[in-house]
Amino acid sequence: MTDQPIKFYQTGTFTVGNRLLSPEQRSVQSNMRRTNSLNSGHRACQGCGEALGARYAIDAAMEATERRLIAANATGCLEVFSTPYPETSWQIPWIHSLFGNAAAVGTGIAAALRVRGQTDVRVIAQGGDGGTTDIGFACLSGMFERNDDVLYICYDNGGYMNTGVQRSSATPPAARTSTTMPVGKGTGSAFGMGKFVPAIAMAHEIPYVATATVADLRGLEAKIRRAMEFRGARYVHILVPCPLGWGHASEQTIRIARLARETGLFPEFEAESGNVTGVTRIRRQLPVEEYLRPQHRFAHLFRDPPRADLIAQIQALADRNICRYGLLARQEAER
Amino acid sequence: MFQIRIHGRGGQGVVTAAELLSIAAFREGRHAQAFPSFGSERTGAPVVAFCRIADEKIRNREPVVAPDAVIIQDPTLLHQVDVFGGMVPDAYILINTSRGFDALGLRDFVSGFDANHRSTVPATEIAIRHVGKPLPNAALLGAFAAVTGLLGIDSVAAAIREKFAERIAEPNVAAAREAFEFMHEKREALARAEAG
Amino acid sequence: MKRKPFAITLDPGSSLANHTGTWRTLRPEYVDNLPPCNDACPAGENIQGWLYLAESGEYEAAWRRLTDDNPLPAVMGRVCYHPCETACNRAKLDSAVGINSVERFLGDEALRLGWKFRAPVESSGKNVLVVGAGPSGLSAAYHLARLGHRVTIREAGPLAGGMMRFGIPKYRMPRNILDAEIARILALGITLLTNARVDNKLEAMRDGSFDAAFLAVGAHVARRAYIPAGSAARVLDAVSVLKGMEGEEPAKLGRRVIVYGGGNTAVDVARTAKRLGATEAIIVYRRTREKMPAHDSEVEEALQEGILIKWLSTIRKANDRSITIEKMTLDEKGQAQPTGEVEELAADSLVLALGQDVDLSLLEGVPGLEVVDGVVKVGADMMTGHAGIFAGGDMVPAERTVTVAVGHGKQAARHIDAWLRGRRHVPASRHELATFERLNTWYYSDAPKSVAPVLDMLRRQSTFEEVVGGLDESTARYEARRCLSCGNCFECDNCYGVCPDNAIVKLGPGQRYQINLDYCKGCGLCEAECPCGAIRMVPEEI
Amino acid sequence: MLKQVEGSQAVAEAVALCRPEVICAYPISPQTHIVEALGRMVTAGQLAPCEFINVESEFAAMSVAIGASAAGARAYTATASQGLLYMAEAVFNAAGLGLPIVMTIANRAIGAPINIWNDHTDALSQRDCGWIQLFAEDNQEAVDLHIQAFRLGEELSLPVMVCMDGYILTHAFERLELPRQEQVDAYLPRFEPRQVLDPAEPLSIGAMVGPEAFMEVRYLAHAKQQQALELIPAWAEEFHRAFGRETGGLLHLYRADDAETIVVALGSVLGTVKDTVDELRETGLRIGVLGLTCFRPWPHLAVRAALADVRRVVVIEKSLAVGLGGIVSANVRGSYTGHPDHVHAVIAGLGGRPITKRALHGVLRKAAEGELEPLTFLDLNRQAVERVLTREREVRRSGPIAESVLRDLGVSALKIG
What is the ipTM of this complex? Predict the structure, then answer.
């Protein structure tokens, strides 16, 4: 008999767990004894992407540090829904100080630990995109520039959701917020505004920068694990859809995040000392429309008459990302 | 209580001069208070520093308005700032210059003073000889010690040594001593002249 | 913690006091839906069940799960037309899971390692007669034996296997495999009497004092059709040709063979002829390929082997060294109509494969028993009009495939068992079908179907070696792992992972999950992200 | 040991003796000499273990201190003027979280117009932030107050500001006694935080507190400051026994026994005031001094007792609550049992304007004669003000005030005194 070659696939699935993998290969979230650092009973909305992202990230960090972890938290949804007196959902040492100083508080904690030689305890500072890319930006940049031993995690839901969905510098173009109305001359958030902080973090040439989404748990956990292998300033930027602010059904949170990546609008990559060292490739490329349609914040693009021009502009942004970061497999071949 | 006012320009070490005086006084077991006339010190701008010396604790914080002595590091200030303002009668005047009062056009102004209380000293020349830089501070303090007899030259030298590293201190101490001798001889000459 | 500052410091995890479950308007529920493969299997195999075991390499467990329903996996893995794969949801994603080849792998593995069936726990003391040792009879005997009954099989032929032996050529069904699987069944303590044709049913029952009987006689009688033939014309029927292959003397067909008919038997004969040395093997069929009852894969293999097929043709007459065929055409109703246009084909022999009938003579004089156009009427419980006599396989109205027959055997066995114990067997109610739409296929890695090795052409045309080979272990496991587990939780931990409120409790391997309704806010993420559609949201009654 | 040393240097050495573990530095005059000196000590290894962090703003300085303190480290920083305002949000936060940070304020005016010289506007602008506020009369007291501040703050779990006049004290060289390390170690125990971020005993700090408990939290902050009113004098007394110096405490009285007039002031001006009072006493005036060391908590009972039999009170204060008048005097009125009109506010020394004995003689004599207004601005240039007011009445676009005042005064060259 002439056997035809058959490619043997490993047990690769994208599910949270996989009984066919050896325990050490499995995700932290699949572990029955995971930390649940952000515990049940928090007051986040149904389907909150930030609650999910925070538990994913902190649990992974807890695993990586053998539960020797302290977190500083900026003001925002995460802080408000997790610690309304008299209850807290946090199972780790956690402090909230102000909206704009999480990174600096992290620096202080790290300094205290260093001075007492408790270098096995690691520090995380975290906040939403408002507390990170806007009001907390100076402290963030200072922490980066000094290369303080802090992992800063930004949970990016593209706006000030806690105060009623106002625009932040992370709000994407054309997105409707309560301060960027879907009517009038410029509808939604203006094009050409806003900033992509991961790139700015890279410009500080800190040891490690990564972007992730709640749609790729394994990737997210790997990045947190990697981040914890470094000393010095590290930055992980996680896209966390917000059913309330984005106007999508609560069960769509993960799907929307997945679409953000598969359309190329949110590039997932890792960078070390300012250089991109890896990207998560698009698996099934989709037009941005697939991502925009399910979200009420973009509904004005599809009303009568539909704004094909704006959709095309958004597609152009996705295409730019795709070629800038090489998000398609075939691009790899070309390299 | 003896109050000194020092005039100079930013960068000439006016504040250091006041500090050194206070240290010298402290070393002689006395209370002293030195402080600058505060400002954003810019090189070349006119600056003033003060020093009070007393045998009891000094509480007064006001600037020296009625000085017992005025030290002028830079004669060009004479026409810019009211350097002699508020002086007590017969206050000491010490000016850093290689020329005399006449040449500075101060003949009439100083005529009323006790000759022993008004002196000029070529502090910058002396400084350049010893320190290699036009930093007249040490020399002026040496001269001041000689003129006023308020402080011993050894305390001045000790203050300089306390403030600066040896490499810098020694040439300055030498400058201070030369200025001290210079003033000493000048005064004796003057005394002889008066006697003779 | 008393000394800690009031209010501004809080004890860890204290939010457990806040039961957010009260926000919920929809409640998630775990469900088990019927996978399309199981749904489509005529033998009623729990395919998903044994694939799940095979995924992790638990092959014996998988084989045992399989043989709970079907005692002939190695045979099935070769001759089943696998409707399961046709129904497989994965076909909509890339290509159907190669269920049949995994089944064959398990079957072969069992033979290789000599796995045996577990003997029945206790005997019922009842005797059951099974007439016919074909797939249906063997299946019934197997299940009856495992249910604790004493079984005797009476087979008219010289060997057990029925159509599996006498209808299917070696190159599809190697005999050593067949023999081994039959032997393993008989090893359960079943008595097999060969060359023991039953002429009178009731006598047979009485002689053996049987409490019940299962009739599973195959359709071995070839249908004839009148074709004017020259005195020297050589006309044979497919059944005897294929049967002849099992004897010492294969039928002489000559170098140019014409086969008349469009069923699997026609194709089998043509391919056999080719292997017997015919230079030309032509199938003449009166309708089009779409209408052809023969299984597509077999037609495909036949064409590969150089078999020619004359579509839309009927045979007018058989001459000494040739036959005359008439071209047909389809009318608007899709019926074949003669055109009068004829053609001569050179031929050394003509084999008629126009279908088969069952020899029902053994039933003469059995009261209450009803026969309608050549088959026996049975009820939902497969019992004939005569109490205690059941029937299945080719004898009853149904598609005539090995798999259907095996299925009949199983069902009949269960009904017979119930009847013997004075009960009624009520089949378990079927779950809702697990549709493709309920799946979230993102989570499955891309994995095209693996291709089974195929014998090279030269030997396919000259020998009776098996054409399609089996999968090696790793490939079979990979193929098993392509299963999407449609409609049934496979413990992927997605729900456990994606719940923003940690409201899913993981109970541990094999235990699946529980929903902690104290905290579940009903966001629906678990349902949306469940890959296999094993969760559904139901409204909370308020 | 006795030293002739600059105030900033002395304070830096005193802070070092307290073994701070984290120091945050951001430059602003006139505080810079302090953190520069500390930086030198850390790099020289004289102060170890200690983390010296150059931050990007005062806001970050206080935030880093908050993090460090919450993680159980003894944290210190220093600032002044605009810097204090820029960190204001974090200043309130540190108090709210009850983190015992010690911060030196080198008191300085607040712009606009920008002014780098001394007054008390910066510290007093934060009087309600929940920090303990201590004011040093001279550099010896500045040194001693820092040592007491760390102990006080850590015992109460409250942050403490030690205020010393910018330039007047920070840049002044004078004789003072610097304690020995073992003395300080004996007086100041190791930092035992009430709350600490520790993986061994996790907890959440800084939770959101709603109407149901916020009042209570604020009340407890107030209650803590009330406790401070007992601890401050007690530990000043203990300090006196250990170090032989009567520094700190709530307030100091000077020649007040038979006084009809009491001058109230805080900070370095007290020295000049005391000299003036001595001279006035020689002229037979029955006048004394109340020097406030502790401004927050407000030592209500102590002040009331001290002013019980006094005919009039003159408050010399280096800050102005625009639209009200004196800040300190407003507080004093609340504690004065006599007629409120007999508490006179004298706003003096704003933006570094020298407070001279001459001027003090004038105003105090006037007070003794009962002719002092309730609110006076010492050495105010009436003509200059009038000129501007007239111009504003006449011309719509009268231009920037500060610049026109300077123009009117013809101030370009440096003015002495």
Answer: 0.89
